Amino acid sequence: MAEQSEYVTLVSYDGFEYILPRSAACISGTIRRMLDPSSKFSEALTGRCVLENMTGIVLEKVCEYFLYNEKHKDQTNVPDMEIPPELCLELLMAADYLDT
Amino acid sequence: MDNEVPLPPPRRIRHRSPAAHGASTGSGTKTSTSSLRKSRRLSRFDDRSSQPSSDPALFSSDDIPASGLENYHAPVTVGGNGSRKRRYRGTWWGEQVVDPNKRKRAEFKEKRYVDSGVWMGSDESSNAESLMLSSEGDAPGCWGEDLLKTALESRLNGRNQSQTQLRGHGPMPIRAANAAAGAFKAHEESAEHRYAKEVVNDCLEKGNDSVDLGNLHMRSIPSGLLRPLQHLTKLPSVNEAPVSENVFTSLQPFLRIFLSNNSLLELHTELFELIGLKVLSLRNNKLSEIPPTISRLTALQDLNVSVNRLSHLPWELLWLVLQGELKHLIVRPNSFVSIEEAQIAEWHSRSEGKEDDDEEPHNPLQLRENNEGITPAEAWAPIHVATGPTIQLNMEGKPMPDCWITTLATTTTTTNSSNSPSLREVALRAVAKLPALDQVSPADLAEYPALVIPLLQRAKEVRASGGRVCSVCKGDFVIPRSEWVEWWDCTPHENGLKRPRASAEMMRPLPFRRVGCSWACVPDGARSG
User: Fold this and answer.
1) By CB count within 10 A, which of A38, A75, B13, B434 is most buried?
2) Interatomic CA distance for residues B141 and B344, integer angstroms
3) Does the beta-carbon distance from B473 to A77 stay under 8 Å?
4) Mind listing the domains of chain A with CATH numbers?
């Protein structure tokens, strides 16, 4: 199998694409399993995950969270992430789907 | 001056003029009668000479944004609506606006409904009354209605807010509010609650800072019962003329609340809003848990929670012992987990290094014998005896399937011991900070997707209890991710700090349950190892 790219692409339902480091995206259990090279999923081969149930706005916040998590992984005093109130519920749903 | 608005021609006061009168009669019967009436009316003023004889003068209005002489005619742009100064003709008492595009008086009246900020004693508004309890017995219904009214108002206000803030999730049904209101009305105030209200009211009235609500068989603390007590003020005890030395006592209330011998199953969060509370007795109730919110009672000196159904104490209570004022802690008897039966991950021993290794195994529950006597810290302060195993909780706050990790065998993956919260947690923290959350009724909650309902419920509970703080990293959190039991011996505090520990005394540690906000917030030993 070809060498894995360092970056993966997350695609929202309405076609927005976000490119972020593989390590950050793999915080999510769902995406980690999608990208697992042993699984032979098409996502694992192409490095491109289409998340059918998320709009671009939600996925943007999710990606922000991935990077926020990556950044603060080893810090002790983690500041809160800003989340607009109207996105709270959708993020909860997304969190459930993504298993983070 | 081009832009000067031409003044309308001065209106003439119609004095009684038989000639004009005669002319108008010729035009037609209908108009003639009306003008006749008008002229008659005016003529009556004339007779009383209330109308000046000269031409009426022009006055300008004193509209606030249009102050200043220089823009007497210029349109005012500051006010936003671009209105000119209004001009009045005639006397100030019979003011008539001449300006053709004058504003309607009705609009002006509507504006008057804005709250002036001045509260009059005769005002109908009940906000101030709801702070005080209704006077004894005469109108418990009134009290309920007051509450209902304010609750409804806030509910309606909040509803608009929540609709804007949680938009995109379907309209919130109005009927939920109505149903809740109906339920509130239907709820009959029980006799013991009414009596408790009278007691509280009496204490407020007389400035009595010892509130005895014992032996009332209350199953719950009604909301709004205890809140007025935070405004309790003592009355000076000067009754007769010769003022002796001992009337000069502190008027700072030494608030004591006795809720003993009731049937309380849980505590209302209002109890923990009484920051100045000094003595609290919850003896002989049916409590199965003391909420961690008790840490807000920083002035608490004396706490009695004996004869309840507690299996653990909150770690925050220990914090009150260590950092706060709490000096007398009566917790036994209770159905505490006994240290002999519990799993212990680590024993902590205070006296380090002195003892030889070849000595027979020391009973960790016994203080070591010491010839020089024990140090003051050992004699008085709580001693950390042992730590139970840490339970890791998953992202929904449920125990992990393979949860009983021991001290050093922490899981290996980096995400597990990460300090950063899960996305769920991040979103829930944001939810818990929304002001609209208070207004979401259980009926509304049922309309959300089933996945998020338990999570939102938790966020709501956390918000109602005033937020939870991680005992390790001091951050806010909603869902605990780790919990463990610490065993501390507080014998001197249980004795009311009357007697220090003796040498070689057996310790009787109490279980304090401690929670952390992430898998990195675990006991010290586990973290360093």
Assistant:
1) B434
2) 55
3) yes
4) 7-98 (3.30.710.10)
Nearest CA in chain B to A97: B451
Residues of chain B found within 8 Å of residue A83, distances taken between Cβ atoms: 426-427, 430
Per-residue pLDDT tens digits for B358-400: 444 566 677 666 555 667 677 788 888 888 888 888 777 777 6
Structure tokens of B266? 């849980």
Distance CA A77, CA B470 (A): 12
CB B212 within 8 A of CB B484: no
Query: Where do the structural domains in chain B lie, given as residue ranges?
Result: 18-99, 134-186, 376-497+507-529
pLDDT category of residue A60 using cuts at 50, 70 and 90: very high
Q: Enumerate the residues of chain B whose CB falls inside 8 A of the CB of residue A58.
A: none
Neighboring chain B residues of A76 at a CB cutoff of 8 Å: 419, 473, 520
Chain A residue with CA closest to B163: the answer is A86
B424 and A88 within 8 Å at the Cβ level: the answer is: no
How close, in Å, is residue B181 to chain A by CA atoms?
A: 27
**Which segments within B237-316 are labelled E, that is strand?**
256-258, 279-281, 302-304, 313-314
| Residues B246, B266 contacting (CB under 8 angstroms) | no
Alpha helices in B85-225 (DSSP H): 105-111, 127-131, 140-165, 174-186, 191-206
Burial B371-396 (b: 16+ CB within 10 A, else e): eeebeeebbbbbbbbbbbbbbbbebe
Is the pTM higher than 0.80? The answer reads no
3-state helix, strand, coil in chain A (%, to 5): 50, 15, 40
Residue with tokens 């006799």: B191
pLDDT tens digit string along B401-418? 654 443 333 433 334 556
Helix axes B29-48, B18-27, angle to 10 degrees: 160
| CB proximity A19 to B under 8 Å | no
Long-range contacts of B95-102 (CB under 8 A, 24+ apart): B98/B8, B98/B11, B98/B58, B100/B8
Nearest by CB to residue A73, choosing from B414, B422, B449, is B414
Q: Where are the beta strands (DSSP E) in A1-100?
A: 7-11, 17-21, 48-50
The closest of B480, B485, B479 to B523, measured between CA atoms, is B485
Closest residue by Cα to residue A81 from B413, B415, B431: B431
